[in-house]
């Protein structure tokens, strides 16, 4: 019964997103139909809160960060906000979620500080470059790149394999020097899991690209962090997911500052988004055990597919 | 690397400290953010841009918005902190500064452990975040 209600809500959300359409102006802003121009500010703020709240639920159930859903959906449909403000809010949404989750993940030992810090240093530096590039480029180019990126994320999420506990025969010299290893207690198997990592130089290189994309699109970067930590470095899946979430609190901080300093933040857009996603995430966590995660994940992929396609069409001027 | 046997035995002491400071920082930031936003939308603190006019600006690009609203880049918002809308930047800036505070708190830990590599990483990360926060990185369309 609960599942049916949840799927019904998700269905309504998708229908709203699919059928509410506005025309994109040439400069990337949205042309508001005449009847929308007189809508008071609080209707938009409330609508943003509600959509962010629903996205917060869906993000948790679908196992993705809030930013990756927020930016393409809020910039692609319904809302009249310029992409600059949506990306700024998206970064703050991802940042707020990571800050809130960080303490619990670190205390449980699932996130690992020593694994996160060197990678976050590289990613946060490149996120600044990405944010500068993102604010310097024309919105249409950003939309095009955003569309390609979102579609690539869909492909990655659909196809990428995950390894619960990858085999790492020998730790590489860099990870050994950085003391990147750990032990955690796995409640499911009731065993202590001892882990180490390899291919650290390759991962450091990949985090340059991840940081640039996180800063440029305001997406957060959990979708890219996890495969690199898990499949490239060989960290256990649970450690990868937790460390990725914690890393966003560092990486998105640097990019968020660039957006704040460039005037790409409006309180009336950013704060309802942050509060909506946070409250939705809390509900999502409670629903996590009651819903079919595989079905929700497919819904998330469909939403991203549609949002990515729409961003791509905007980018090519359609 | 030292482990704290008192709590979770799998968590290092520096990680426990970071988590503790992050937890306090996040909760404080969240409360500040909610309070400031309520002050803003309730009209208790008059905004720089009246709420019924914000829709004239939010469809503009950031540079166009700054120009139209006669605002400036960087920390210039601090001069408007007594206005409801820019008071919210205080809460947002607090959220964005928490990570730097946590990193600075780790510095004495890594120095005490004589861990040169992580001491250097903490210093570099703090410099990077300070550079981003400084507002000297100026861009435009």
Describe the structure.
The complex is a heterodimer of chains A (318) and B (141). By secondary structure, chain A is mainly α. Chain A is built from 13 helices and 4 strands. Chain A has helices at 2-19, 34-37, 41-62, 66-76, 83-108, 113-136, 139-159, 173-177, 200-217, 222-232, 237-261, 267-287, 293-315, and strands spanning 23-24, 30-31, 181-186, 191-196. In chain A, helix 3 (41-62) crosses helix 13 (293-315), helix 4 crosses helix 13 (293-315) and helix 9 (200-217) packs across helix 11. Chain A is globular and about 65 Å long. The N and C termini of chain A lie far apart (41 Å). With 141 residues, chain B is an all-alpha fold. In chain B, helix 1 (13-42) runs antiparallel to helix 3. The longest helix of chain B has 30 residues, at 13-42. Chain B is elongated and about 55 Å long. The relative contact order of chain B is 0.14. The model of chain B has no long low-confidence stretch (mean pLDDT 90). Classes of the chains: A mainly alpha (318), B mainly alpha (141).
Search tags:
heterodimer, A: about 325 residues, mainly alpha, two-stranded antiparallel ribbon, two-stranded antiparallel sheet, 13 helices, about 70% helix, B: about 140 residues, 4 helices, elongated
Write down the Rg of chain B.
20 Å
Order of helices and strands of chain B: HHHH
Strand order of the largest sheet of chain A: 1-2
Mean pLDDT metric of chain A: 82
Share in β-strands of chain A = 5-15%
Number of helices of chain B: 4
Please state the CA-atom Rg of chain A, rounded to the nearest Å.
19 Å
- Percent range of helical residues of chain B: 55-70%
Record field, number of beta strands of chain B: 0
Brief sketch in words of this structure:
The complex is a heterodimer of chains A (318) and B (141). By secondary structure, chain A is mainly alpha-helical. Chain A has helices spanning 2-19, 34-37, 41-62, 66-76, 83-108, 113-136, 139-159, 173-177, 200-217, 222-232, 237-261, 267-287, 293-315, and strands spanning 23-24, 30-31, 181-186, 191-196.
């Amino acid at each position: 019964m609960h599942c049916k209600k949840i799927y019904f809500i998700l269905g309504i959300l998708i229908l709203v997103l699919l059928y509410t359409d506005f025309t994109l102006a040439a400069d990337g802003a949205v042309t508001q139909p005449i009847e929308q121009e007189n809508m008071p500010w609080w209707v938009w703020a409330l609508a943003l809160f509600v959509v962010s709240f629903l996205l917060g639920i869906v993000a948790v159930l679908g196992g993705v960060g809030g930013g990756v859903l927020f930016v393409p959906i809020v910039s692609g449909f319904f809302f009249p906000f310029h992409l600059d403000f949506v990306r700024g809010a998206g970064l703050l949404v991802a940042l707020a979620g990571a800050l809130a989750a960080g303490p619990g993940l670190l205390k449980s030992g699932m996130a690992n500080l020593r694994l996160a810090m060197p990678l976050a240093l590289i990613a946060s530096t490149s996120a600044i470059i990405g944010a500068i590039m993102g604010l310097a480029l024309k919105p249409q180019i950003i939309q095009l790149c955003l569309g390609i990126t979102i579609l690539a994320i869909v492909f990655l999420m659909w196809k990428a394999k995950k390894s619960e506990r990858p085999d790492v025969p020998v730790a590489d010299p860099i990870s050994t020097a950085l003391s990147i290893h750990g032990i955690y207690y796995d409640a499911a198997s009731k065993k202590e899991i001892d882990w180490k990592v390899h291919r650290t130089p390759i991962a450091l290189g990949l985090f340059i690209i991840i940081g640039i994309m996180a800063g440029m699109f305001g997406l957060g970067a959990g979708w890219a962090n996890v495969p690199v930590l898990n499949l490239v470095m060989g960290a256990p899946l649970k450690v990868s997911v937790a460390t990725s979430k914690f890393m966003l609190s560092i990486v998105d901080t640097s990019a968020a500052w660039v957006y704040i300093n460039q005037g790409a933040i409006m309180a009336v857009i950013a704060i309802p988004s942050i509060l909506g996603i946070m409250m939705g995430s809390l509900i999502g966590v409670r629903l996590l055990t009651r819903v079919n995660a595989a079905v929700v994940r497919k819904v998330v992929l469909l939403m991203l597919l549609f949002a990515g396609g729409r961003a791509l069409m905007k980018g090519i001027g359609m | 690397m030292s482990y704290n046997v008192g709590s979770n035995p799998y968590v290092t002491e520096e990680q426990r400290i970071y988590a503790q400071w992050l937890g306090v920082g996040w909760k404080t930031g969240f409360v500040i953010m909610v309070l400031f936003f309520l002050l803003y939308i309730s009209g208790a603190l008059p905004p720089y841009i009246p709420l019924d006019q914000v829709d004239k600006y939010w469809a503009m690009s950031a540079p166009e918005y700054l120009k139209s609203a006669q605002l400036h880049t960087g920390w210039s918002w601090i001069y408007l902190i007594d206005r409801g809308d820019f008071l919210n930047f205080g809460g947002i800036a607090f959220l964005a500064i928490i990570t730097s505070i946590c990193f600075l708190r780790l510095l004495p830990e890594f120095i005490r452990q004589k861990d040169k590599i992580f001491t250097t990483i903490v210093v570099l990360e703090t410099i990077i975040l300070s550079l981003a926060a400084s507002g000297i990185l100026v861009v435009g369309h």
